[in-house]
Amino acid sequence: MIRVLVDSTVYLPPEVRNAPELRVLSLFVRHAGKEYVESQMDIDEFYSHIGDMIEDIPTSSQPSPLEVEKELEDAAQAGDSVIGLFLSSGLSGTYEGVIRAARVVEARHASFRYAFIDTSATGGDSTGGVLEALDAVHAGHSLSHCVQRALFGVQSSRIIFSPDSLAFLRAGGRIGAASALLGGLMNVRPILTVTDGSVRVIAKVRSQKKALSRMLAQLDQDIQEAGGLKHLVVHYIGSKERAVEWAREVVEPHIGRSVDVVPVSPVVGCHVGPAMGLAYQCNNPLALKITGNVQQLACTH
Fold first, then answer.
1. Same domain, 145 and 163
2. Is the separation of the CB atoms in 269 and 54 below 8 Å?
3. Which of 80, 170, 198, 220 is 20 to 30 A from 55 (CA-CA)?
4. Could you report the per-residue pLDDT of 152-164, keeping only the tens digit for each?
């Protein structure tokens, strides 16, 4: 059997959460002296206080090395292969940590086969790669074929989002103090995405209404250029009610189908602050998602 290993930042649709091949490694969030296991968090309760966290921004950490090694050891002893998809290595050390653990297990089990993928993603934009991998596993394909399908899912998925303010990004050192101050004074809202695993600015607008419209315009462009829409979720950090309203009143009529409304992983969200966005997969690879050789995102043995 091929197991599919992911970290807790990925959005998993309800229909795949109990797949027998699926395993989840949890990251951790720390705030106000308390540590949270991300996979067990009440995310909406946590986000209900995020506006008050700017003076004491939560921190995050990758899965326990012992837990990772235990998961891989269990697969190796069972004779199973593993394909893993993880949060962008530009944002977390999870991907490198899993590779280190796999090499320890490999030293004990020479026949252990694995393939790990740096999704260059931050949440719902990981979903496409995971679903492609699961479909390939269910169809009985080889590990190498599953890797290629997962990489296709990475290339064809995107997240776009707009934070309410630049305060959290400034506090986390992702933008300078002058830029944050100017943005606040001018009510500038950046539209952000992730390219090659790093945050990139698509556009800057002057109001939330314009930000939401600009995100839909980017979605339309991607749908047109990449052969249509495969699936989409509305993402939020902070207020769920506001995201649900946007989804039901604007996004669903715009694309002509119902969509899930899901919170961004707190591991990611605590560095961005209150925000809304879209995560989606198209039928073909997307421009400016992966600009280099996509094969370099996979580590195989």
1. no
2. no
3. 198
4. 999 999 999 999 8
